[in-house]
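Case study 2.
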Amino acid sequence: MKVPYVDFSGQYAAERPRLLGILDRVMSRGEYIMGPEVEDFERRFARLCGVGHAVGVANATDALTLALKALGVGPGDEVITAPNSFIASAGAIAQAGATPVFVDVKADQLMDPAKLEGALTRRTKAVLPVHLTGKICDMEAILRFARRRGLKVVEDAAQAVGARRGGRPAGSFGDAACFSFHPLKNLNAAGDAGAIVTGDAALAAKLRLLRNHGLVSRNEVSFWGYNSRLDTLQAAILGFRLKGLSAVTAKRRRNAAVYRKGLAGVVECPSDEEGCRDAYHLFVIQADRRDALRDFLKKKGISTAVHYPTPIHLQPSARSLGGKAGDFPETERQSKRILSLPVHQYLTPRQLGHVIGSIREFYR
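Prediction:
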């Protein structure tokens, strides 16, 4: 039995008539850049995140970079983040001209607030927690640390759309939060797309200028900016898919519950912390003999992924930061054990059963 890691063809088959209608509407009107669908999506997405403002941009990496720059982060500054994320988390800090500084994570793969004090220097300007796999970090503790020291907080919520903690949605905690709508995400565009959300009206206004060359009108440039606009077509697709996000999240959560029950006592499975509603962008197990297990599952027709096999501090791009093996033991331990199972909303009960049965067979 084949179990794909993602099922884009299944999604397109389910949505084809509506998507073709969206394509026809946008293309026939010819408003490809900053059309009305962009503002409509921004308004609705801000409401989902429990904040006043959303600014659509070309991708989540730009979202992080622009948010940091808009908050005054630049050369000479340091930003504390986690080393077990996708490279863009630290890369955006570098693109803003600042230096990423890492702290280790907890067993749940999220930033350990207890480590923040040890990473603090006089150059620290901001904290960038990463809501990895669809889980929201311990934002209460992170915000207490940051507020006492006058630091900005930018949530990397690229994997957490639809997640909640203590009744609050991802994106509602920091000075700004950044989301990805990459095709692999729970709320996905048909290409790259992203957004920044904030409760600060002045910051949102600055971000709208930053994403569009700094233009206040067609012929007046307020400051040097960037070309990072959310395409009208992508905004229209996202606006349509936003209506179904709660159902997508619910299905992924049900799949996660099936995995937890079927794999109990076999491998380490993620679980929801009390008061949290994780979005399960990824379902990441931690397992002995991870690579052998992955090869075994591949032979069984089951596609998996590793998010991420090499921690950022050990990447060649981070060599100038002076990181070395052993610096972040929990991150490094997990990097050898983590395995992402298919958890998308198009999985059937038989496919879920095949994944569970195959993993149990491997460990027998």
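The two ends are 20 Å apart (CA to CA).
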